[in-house]
Each structure stands twice: as structure tokens, then as C-alpha cells.
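quick one
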Amino acid sequence: MTAGADGPAPPRIVRFGEVDSTQDLAFTLAADGAGDMTVVIADSQRLGRGRRGRVWHDAPGASLLMSVLLRPRLDVAAWPTFSPTAAVAVATALARVAAIEARVKWPNDVLARGRKLAGILLESRIGAGVPTLVLGIGINLAQRVFPPPLAERATSLALETGATPDREQVLAAVLDELGRWREILERDGFAAVRERWLELADGRGERVTVDGVTGVIVDLDSDGALVLEDRGVRHRVIAGEVREEAAHAARG
Ligand code: BTN
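structure w/ biotin:
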């Protein structure tokens, strides 16, 4: 099935127990002809991956691990804008389903009280055959403790709300918001998404360093690049990790 004239196709959910990575399964299904909004869900992953070559660990059954196959109705050049679009959709869904204040951190983390609640990985394959986009989402649902490297920076819906969330309810909300924001992106362009992303942005107005570039976060560009300003000069950052410059935090 492909995206129709009336909007994206309804999701088709495919469920697995333990897998290497839902991303790989989504690409395999895509190569076999699976359509837009095929959603791969797993209980746990042996080789879950994050951005920048990192490993994405999960405690079995404690996370929502999903990959969504997208056949965008956008030029390939605009596909990176799916990344902030997905962050807005996930943050909105989590705020809705758990009544928390969820924020987005460039490029596409979702935070609660400054801690990472969900991570997003956008991967494309554009070689021979039909170009394919797979959106991977990992949401911490039921963890009550995290191992040492994550303990200071991660959180879960259970920790934020005191109650273990219903995975199916979270999944339904994420797919609903993804469908909604994706439609806004494809129909109206990135401007509306960008506006909402900026409203939800963590660290806006703060001084940060991203891969050697330092400045105050002032904007998100039309292609999803982060815009930093330093002494009146604007710098675009297209990839990297945002690190807060605590000693130089902007004061107005
Ligand atoms: C990040 O924050 O670095 C992105 C993490 C993305 C993790 C999800 S879990 C489901 C999907 N399958 C993977 O192997 N990775 C993504």
C-alpha cells in the first residue's frame, strides 16, 4: 500500500518478540514491498541502535520499540524534516497520554524534566529500488531504575507518572500524532511543524556547543538544521550533540 491522494495509509502493525533491531526488519519488509505506515514492534532488541552509531539498550518488555516504514510524499531532499516532525509527534503523544510536560531536544530526543524519555532514529536507503525511510522510536515506559551511565540522564513514563503505562495506549497515541504531524508536513510544508518544534524546544535561548560550534539556540532552519547565534553571527548545525555551556548560559 502507498500513501494515497487523501493522506497517509492507516498503520499496519507487525509484532515480534525479541529481534536484532526493528529498523532492520522494517527495511527488510520494505524491500519485500511493504507499504507506507508499516509498523514493526518488538518486545526487546539484541542489537538496538541509536544515533551516531550508539547502542540502544532496552530492558525486555519495559520499552516501546518501534520502526515505522514511510513512503513520504516529499522530495528526498526534504526527508530530514521528518526527524523534528517525529519529535513533535512523540512529545505531543506522550504529553497527551501521560499528562506530562514533554519537550524536544535537537535533533530529535524527547525529554521530561530534562531527562531523556524517548529517542528517535531516522534512517533512509536511497540506492537502487524505491527510496525508503524508516523512523525508529524507542520510548522508556516501565523502567524504575536505569544502569549507571543512563541513571543521571534517562527517565521513563513510570518514573514521571508513578504508574506503569499501557504500551498499546502509548502506541496508539504515537501513531495518531505521527499521522497528524506527518500530514501537516506533507500538506502544508515544514513551517507549521517548525513553529511547534520551537514551542516545545528544550534549551532555546541557552548557550550550547554542538560539535565545536558554540552559540545561543535561536532557531530551527527550514531543513531542520539548528541555528546558533554567537556575537551576532548565525551558525547552522546539521548534525551533532547539543551540550549545554553551563558557565555561559544566556541571561536574557
Ligand atoms: C537515539 O536516541 O539515539 C535514537 C534511539 C532509537 C531507538 C529505536 S528503538 C526502535 C528502533 N530500533 C532500533 O534499533 N533503534 C530504534
